[in-house]
Design goal:
The complex is a heterodimer of chains A (261) and B (506).
Chain A lengths: L13 E3 L2 E3 L6 E4 L3 E4 L3 H20 L2 H17 L9 H13 L3 H5 L1 E3 L5 E9 L2 E5 L6 H13 L3 E5 L6 H11 L8 E4 L3 H10 L5 E4 L4 H13 L3 E3 L5 H7 L1 E9 L3
Chain B lengths: L46 E2 L1 E3 L2 E3 L6 E5 L6 E6 L3 H20 L2 H17 L1 H12 L3 H20 L5 H4 L6 E3 L2 E5 L5 H14 L3 E5 L6 H12 L7 E3 L4 H8 L6 E5 L2 H10 L6 E5 L5 E4 L5 H13 L11 E5 H15 L20 H16 L3 E4 L14 E4 L6 H4 L6 E7 L2 H9 L3 E2 L1 E5 L3 H8 L6 E4 L14 E2 L2 E2 L12 E3 L2
Parallel strand pairs in B: 1-5, 7-8, 7-10, 8-9, 10-11, 12-13, 12-18, 13-16, 15-16, 18-19
Antiparallel strand pairs in B: 2-3, 4-5, 6-22, 11-21, 14-15, 17-20
Helix pairs in contact in B: 2-4, 3-4, 4-6, 10-11
The chains are: A alpha/beta (261), B alpha/beta (506).
């Protein structure tokens, strides 16, 4: 017996539809002085949006209590694997805990019973916008990424994330945490790759309903908004409280029901 | 009044069985004597200028255009046409007025808005008549819906002006956006002006409003009301003009927030123009809303709701129930009952108090409706159109329905914005939901069923900003209105309608 053990390197993969996959393009980039990561393609974007769309109705139909528990379990999973993220996951875990608690409160904060001047029960409730693209900034820390994912999830949206181009590893590692949490496949999809390739494809995709633009790039913002306008996507950028962010990721639906014998 | 006389044998035009005393198989005829609303009460000016900084002024370019009555093609008045210079002047007036307006205590700001509501109520009859003259909608609708709701919107938002800290979740610090540019459509001219102006003013913004080029008159009467209310000069500026004036307004230097109601194509254009800019934007755009009738619905009640859904305001309604989805088991009888009911609709003089369906708003819109109906026929859907005498002059389109409208047909996908209904069938709930959601639009939907539990179950799965259960086309200032998907973003009505007009700290 020898006491020499050869370490095995980790093969990083995209996280699409609950599966860990290589980029269909077969390409890779090298980050962090020697780690290979898949270079996602426009086809990977399309696959990810399709997975997010397919998962959205089921995720939205879960009870708010259930979504809250699932997000809380993701917080537990992240906390327990802090070591893989260099130890400092406190802020990211807290973001998950914070949004886990929002799932069954938002209706009370944003919803209304409307005192209409006619014999109807009229009520407005916050509903998920649909599929949300999260466009990360170049230096986004894990906590910002987790916040940008947890907010749309809390209200029943599904997400496709374009991870930071130069620092995708925390995001890809996060996928491995979420992959063993109770978050259904397709609810979160994570893509590494080039911003210039992924972001326009995501912003222009006709089945994306909203975009969280954290790129912080004013020139790119113009392009993103122009792509967004093709299908009237909502775009969200800048500083927001968690409630403002949640509000921007929901649609109020007003239902009228007659009152009478 | 035109009357249809094409009811099937043995059925009266109001859908009842023939009375026992009537000769069998001879349809009763329900003739209505003309009941025109008198226009004596209305004194329109020959010419209307632009309303800038509290005064009616000449347009910089000197351009005027007639606004016509679409029911007669007769001109009603000459109306100034704003150009880019006028837009700049109006924005400057709004900018100058904004700090003092925002600094007014909320209660005082609200009192001006209450005054506007009261003056609209006092001049309700005049406003209703002018709305009908300028736009072609039946007087009973302008009298009973447009004008009362416009007053109600001002009344509702007036009351928010001193309660903004409670209206919006957050730290209670609410800052107006500043100067807002607002562009409104021709289908509910005064009501849309109210939807836009009331929340903007309540939150301390000042406004430049562009009414639609075919229906500027009630906005200009509103300008008179603003003068009468002694609203400080510059707080509201009204710029009649065509699409180029609207395009200039939403791109104008110094605009902090844009609100637009109109077509999805123009909405997309505005969003593109504002790309990358920190300018608030709300868009209330088109729709192709599904009206879903389940087999357990009260069918006669549903027929009334379908008629209300698609023929109200000649179908010039963004949330019109223009796609009828009927459960297969009741489809045949449903369509026959609807067809019978449609033939009893009274089409003609919008000023007649009995009229159900008035004039199409413009020659351009009539051509658009005709083109899409032609496409429906060409693509193989079955057209049934009410056969009735129509006035010789003016723009008219008799109510129509298409049976066997496939989801791929243009009449099922594109907004017709006219009195044309596309009918298709479904078998299961899941199919109804899938078909209803199979549209880039997501503005509204209707559900007809006797089971409340089913109605709420289906409503929860519809991608629609408004869902009417066993009713259709009800509106109220307290209830948020706005779309999912390509029907736009942002809400009007309710506390939610205040949010686009303020900034809040993070």
């Amino acid at each position: 017996m020898s006491d020499v053990r050869v370490a095995i390197a980790k093969t990083y993969k995209l996280y699409i539809g609950g599966a860990f996959v290589r980029s269909e393009s077969g390409r890779h980039d090298v980050v962090d002085d020697g780690v290979n990561v898949p270079r996602g393609s426009r086809k990977d974007v399309r696959d990810a949006v399709k997975a997010a769309r397919n998962a959205q109705a089921g995720w939205a139909k879960k009870t708010a209590y259930n979504r809250g528990q699932i997000l809380y379990r993701a917080a537990e999973a992240l906390e327990s694997r802090a070591g893989e993220f260099g130890g400092d996951v406190g802020e990211a875990v807290d973001a998950l805990v914070h949004y886990a608690g929002w799932t069954d409160k938002l209706g009370a904060v944003l919803g209304t019973i409307n005192p209409v001047a006619a014999p109807f029960l009229s009520m407005s409730t916050p509903e998920p916008t649909g599929v949300v693209a999260v466009l990360c900034g170049p230096d986004d820390a894990l906590a910002s990424l987790v916040s940008a994912i947890a907010a749309p999830l809390a209200v029943g949206n599904t997400v496709v994330v374009a991870l930071p181009e130069r620092t995708p590893l925390p995001g890809l590692d996060l996928g491995e945490v979420l992959g063993v949490s109770d978050i259904p496949g397709g609810v979160v999809n994570l893509l590494s790759g080039r911003t210039a390739e992924l972001v326009p494809a995501l912003a222009a995709h006709r089945d994306v309903n909203a975009i969280i633009d954290a790129t912080g790039d004013p020139a790119l913002a113009v392009d993103i908004d122009r792509f967004a306008a093709e299908t009237l996507k909502r775009t969200i950028r800048g500083e927001h409280s968690s409630l403002q962010r949640l509000e921007a990721l929901t649609e109020l639906r007003t239902v009228w029901h007659p009152i009478g014998a | 009044m035109s009357e249809t006389t094409t009811a099937p044998q043995g059925t009266t035009t109001n859908g009842r069985e023939p009375a026992a005393v009537a000769t069998p198989r001879a349809p009763l005829r329900w003739e209505y004597s003309p009941a025109p609303e008198s226009t004596d009460h209305v004194r329109l000016r020959e010419r209307y200028g632009l309303f800038i900084d509290g005064e009616f002024v000449e347009p910089a370019g000197g351009a005027y255009a007639p606004t016509i009555n679409p029911a007669t093609e007769e001109p009603l008045a000459e109306v100034a046409q704003a150009g880019a210079d006028d837009v700049a002047r109006a924005v400057a007036a709004a900018r100058a007025a904004q700090p003092a307006w925002a600094a007014l205590p909320g209660l005082e700001r609200g009192k001006y808005i209450f005054r506007i509501a009261r003056l609209i109520q006092e001049r309700a009859r005049e406003l209703a008549i002018v709305e009908t003259l300028d736009g072609g909608k039946p007087i009973k609708e302008s009298r009973d819906v447009d004008i009362p709701l416009a007053a109600a919107h001002f009344f509702y938002y007036a009351g928010w002006a001193d309660k903004l800290a409670y209206a919006l979740p957050g730290d209670g610090v609410v800052t107006p956006r500043g100067v807002v540019g607002q562009v409104i459509p021709w289908n509910f001219p005064l009501l849309m002006a109210a939807w836009k102006l009331a929340p903007a003013l309540a939150t301390g913004n000042t406004a430049v409003l562009k009414p639609a080029d075919t229906t500027p008159l009630t906005a200009l009467l509103l300008a008179e009301i603003l003068q009468e209310a002694e609203l400080p000069a510059g707080v509201v500026n009204i710029l009649p003009g065509d699409g180029s004036a609207g395009a200039a307004l939403v791109r104008a230097e110094g605009i902090d927030k844009v609100a637009f109601t109109g077509s999805t194509a123009v909405g997309r254009d505005i969003q593109t123009a504002l790309a990358g800019k920190d300018i608030g934007l709300t868009l209330e755009l088109g729709g192709k809303s599904a009206n879903i009738v389940f087999e357990d619905a009260a069918l006669d009640q549903a027929v009334e709701g379908i008629v209300q859904g698609i023929f109200f305001n000649q179908g010039h309604v963004c949330c019109a129930g223009s796609r009828l989805l009927v459960q297969e088991s009741v489809a045949e009888q449903m369509i026959e009952r609807l067809w019978t009911r449609m033939q009893a609709l009274r089409i003609g003089d919008p000023l007649d108090k009995n009229t159900d369906v008035g004039a199409i708003n413009s020659a351009a819109q009539l051509a658009r409706i005709g083109e899409l109906v032609g496409a429906g026929v060409a693509e193989g859907a079955g057209l049934r159109q009410v056969s009735c005498a129509l006035p010789d002059r003016g723009y008219w389109f008799a109510p129509a329905l298409f049976t066997e409208a496939s989801p791929a047909h243009r009449i099922s996908r594109e907004e017709i914005f006219g009195p044309v209904l596309a009918v298709t069938t479904f078998r299961t709930h899941a199919e109804a939901i899938e078909k209803a959601n199979n549209s880039p639009y997501g503005l509204a939907a209707g559900i007809w069923t006797d089971k409340g539990s089913k109605a709420f179950e289906v409503a929860a799965q519809l991608q629609a900003g408004v869902v009417w259960q066993n009713t259709y086309n009800h509106f109220d200032p307290t209830a948020a209105f706005g779309g999912f998907k390509e029907s736009g973003f942002g809400r009007e009505g309710g506390a939610a309608g205040l949010r686009p007009y303020v900034r809040q700290g993070a």
